[in-house]
Design brief:
Length: 95
Amino acid sequence: MSSPHCLAHDHKDTVAVVVVERLKAGTDMLGVVTHDNSDFRVRAQQDIPIGHKVALKDIKAGETIWKYGQDIGKAIAPIKKGEHVHVHNVKTKRW
């Protein structure tokens, strides 16, 4: 297997973390689920910086975002599969 572009930790995750520099829109990303080393594919819809998240499915506004198998917040706007997930479209549920 070639080096992955993004990593998810659990099959329940709705986002994965980009692990390569200068990921460009249109890239057919190889992803790995670290829980069992299974792989998946997702096409980047936007440029996404290293360390930022990419949506693994379409997410509706108000839906929970799952990372590391944990609830990390809610979508504040619709997010399409392959789009950049960050502070512009996710908010913590704590406040």
